[in-house]
Amino acid sequence: MKVYGDTNSGNCLKVQWVCDHLALPYTWVAVDTLKGETRTAEFLKLNGAGQVPAVELDGGRTLAQSNAIIRYLARTSSLIPSDAFAQGKMDEWLFWEQYSHEPYIAVCRFQMFYLKKPASDLDPEKVKRGYAALARMEHQLAITPFLVGDAVTLADISLLAYTRVAHEGGFHLDGYAAVRRWIGETEEFLKLPSAR
Asked: Which segments constitute the GST N-terminal domain (predicted)?
């Protein structure tokens, strides 16, 4: 399997972390999104949306979208709950991550960390919605150790990617004790160095 990704992207890191945690063999193919390498004719044949991550499986089949990829890769693992309702709750968080978390936390991080914009230039609505996302996570993680209960699932891996580096987008986690605890425990589970 080939994983096409940019290690600056949390969406790509999700795929790398799942592969490494499950000891899945893969070749990492570095794609520099800032240099437009996802817009080449060759890459667009792999993923017509022109986005990373993308994986090329045996036989040339391809799959894109980070949460779809990790769900496929982990399909027979304990990272997906066996209970159908718990699976649904995991999927709820996966969909929410892409719609209500990543567009705010990750976009602010990109603007500050990569485009070197000051925090004062960030869209106040994106900042507000980023903090709303963190508040929702804090509420859940004050009730359960992980997003779907007592064990790490793909929901945790997916949301860890950008939450652990939220500070690089100007988000302060001082008032989010449960989120900070969860970041540390999920990083430890995945054997990742701390992002702080």
From this structure: 1-81
User: Are 53 and 142 found together in one domain?
Assistant: no
| Residues 60 and 143 grouped into a single domain | no
What residue type is 39 in one-letter code? R
Check whether 171 has a pLDDT greater than 90: yes
Under a CB-based contact definition with an 8 Å cutoff, are residues 150 and 81 in contact?
no
Cβ-based neighbour number of residue 193 at 10 Å: 6
**pTM check: above 0.85:** yes
Tokens of 35: 């240099």
Burial grade of 18 (CB within 10 A; 0-12, 13-18, 19 or more): buried
pLDDT tens, position by position, 111-165 = 999 999 999 999 999 999 999 999 999 999 999 999 999 999 999 999 999 999 9
